[in-house]
Amino acid sequence: MRVPNSVVLPVGTHVDCCREEEVEEKRHDIVARIAAMLAERKNNLTHFLDNLEGSEEPEFYMDQWERLKEMESRTLTILNLVAVNCMDHHDIKKLEVTILQHVKNEELFPEVIRVLPPIYRQVEAAIVAIAQSEEVADHGMMDLQYLLSKLCQCKHLANLGRELLQDILRYLHRVGLVVWYEEIKHLESTVFLQPTFLITMFKLLVRHCLVQQLENIS
């Protein structure tokens, strides 16, 4: 909901634990919940905007109003839910095919038809090689300037500049190869070459039962 023009593919797992009719019931329930969530979000944004516009001194809330208007303008495309049995290789392949079909849809992803300069591919290949090298820690965190110096050691990338590298990192961030939070001051100089490490960390830290687990520690 916070990412501009997001495309979301809901995936329902554990189909093997349900009867066939239950799968359809749960599918309809999830779709209804998503629709209700989006409607509630829209109503909340409208309510907040109305409150700000109706305040006695709206000029003091201009920054907040602009942020809310930006969120209101962002589109969110929800694709049809895919139900899979993660224990069935055929279902996993079906999910893979579905994802690829959506990704190649130019209406959903206009950048699919974008022709990239050769240096984008060269930098991408070099970053993959660096991430897989033994000298890089498992977490894959690397200083932006250090990454630039490593890339410039490649013969065909000797003239790579910082601005061009940042443009390429924005693209690689969008396609999910790396994670670079350039908009966060404390993280703008750090590039995560292993996004899966972040996912693992988030799974350890962000859990619905975390508070209860912490309270149970003597």
From TrEMBL:
Name this polypeptide is given: MFHA1 protein
This protein's encoding gene: Mfhas1
